[in-house]
Amino acid sequence: MDVSPAQVFSSFRALDKDDDGRIWAWELLSALGRAGIQPGDPRVRAALAGVRDPLGVDSQPVQLDLREFSAIAQYGDGLVYRALNDELAVPAEEFREFARGVEAIYADVLPNRDGANADYIPTLRDADPERFGIAICTADGQTFSIGDAEAGFSVQSTSKPFSYAMALEQLGPTEVHRWVGQEQSGGTFNDYRLSLGDGRRPHNPMINAGAMATLALVDHGKQTSDRYRTVRGTWARMMGTAPGFDQETYLAEKATGDGNRGLASLMKAADMLKASGEDGAAKTADFYFQVCSLEVDAQRLAAAGATLANGGVAPYSGERVFSQETAGRVLSVMGHSGMYNDSGKFSDRVGLPAKSGVSGNVMLVVPWKRLAVVTFSPRLDAAGNSVRGVEVCQRLVHDFNLHPYRTLGTTRLNQADRRAEAAQAAAHALTGLPRPGSTSPAAPTAPNHVQGAAATRRTQPPSHQV
To answer: To 5 degrees, how large is the angle CA 11–CA 14–CA 18?
Structure first.
């Protein structure tokens, strides 16, 4: 980033409280933290690489002169300078307010112990049901997390939007949608009777059949090991670090995956699965089980979600992983089909693109805020969505007025109210008559268009499969 010496000096002076030409490294890190950029951010560590132990862990605290600060401020894409000058995706005060709100929501939702773990494989059944974490990541890598945000889990169905994105990047929408549709299925995500439409084409990429059809397109014709490397590498580019792999979950998914293998066989029999050979359907299902068994945590998954919120550009590296068009298409399908068989209800109450997985994760994207929120809590509702995760999403939308449709026209109505109020006041001044329905001027009040978060369904879930 090209920053003038005068701009760098101004930022330096703002931190040089003693006006002695030096600043403490911890003062710089504190200022970055207030903007949402954490000391452990790899970009911050790289920028400070030439400074002796900037965290002061193994030595005395470090001071920086103007020359050292200038190099740090302009490192890479100028992250440090932009953070200090409130030029990140979310303004610092707004980000802090959002973080405080998430803290309050976390405390309110924590006592909710409704629902139950998915029980069709041991790793999901035996996961600690008390786990609960929330993580935020913006397009510029501003982060906040609370609770079990670093606890690992298999990504499960939240892999589906990204598999769809990879296929779109490689083949384009016309070819991809020869094999998979864009409509809601009208049924559960793993119901073989409702997953396939005309010609046995799966309804959309967010159900199991659609996810397998999508993955069959990624690096088609290559060895499975090469295809897996492509998928894992794409996740690493989004998150800034490679995902793990839950071998136990993969083996369990494979052992219980007859339904998914059956769906793949039905599609292949109708020439609606791009898989060759007698075992093409089985290999496709197996690849799907591998991708669902990638291990992430809420913090890393939030970075992947922020990649979509940023039009396909990864938050930590600034690398374009997906085109803007691809990111938009993925978010559109998430908006109507991302939350299993409760997608319509979720869209009504939350109105934002999201995707859930039966390990208990929910990834919510707020495109116009350029950020993603991820929750992790294993207890599921009847549709297979995390009970706490859905409640967090509803509270966020309610508390921060994020629903894209519930406040339509509010500004215009308020302007109309003000014009009417002014006209009534002018008439009163000219005639001396009171305004209709009032005895004294009163400021207009904004109509309340934001509905309270609906109560989460209190039912125990049936068994669910990815």
So the answer is: 130
Nearest Cα neighbor of 147 from 113, 97, 110, 116 is 110
Number of H helices, E strands in the chain: 18, 10
Q: How far apart are CA 264 and CA 209, in angstroms?
A: 7
- DSSP label at residue 420: H
**Cβ partners under 8 Å of residue 123, min gap 6:** 154, 246, 248, 249, 252
Distance of CA 89 to the CA centre of its chain: 15
Give the pLDDT band of residue 227 (cuts 50, 70, 90). very high
Question: Whole-prediction pTM value?
Answer: 0.85
Q: CA end-to-end span of the chain, whole Å?
A: 44
Ramachandran angles phi, psi of 308, nearest 5°: -70, -40
Measured between alpha carbons, how far is residue 10 from residues 64, 72, 213 in Å?
A: 15, 14, 55
Q: Encode 424-445: b = buried (16+ Cβ within 10 Å), e = exposed.
A: beeeeeeeeeebeeeeeeeeee
- Alpha-carbon span 303 to 300, nearest angstrom: 5
Q: List, in sequence order, every beta strand (DSSP E) within 7-90.
A: 22-24, 63-65
Yes or no: say if 419 and 411 are a contact pair by the CB < 8 Å rule: no
- The H-or-E segment that residue 253 falls in is helix 247-255
Nearest to 330 by CA among 300, 367, 301: 367
Whole-Å CA distances, 334 to 15, 71, 139, 193, 269: 43, 42, 19, 22, 28
Q: What is the pLDDT of residues 382-403, one digit of tens each?
A: 999 999 999 999 999 999 999 9
**Which value, in Å, is the radius of gyration of the alpha carbons in the chain?**
25
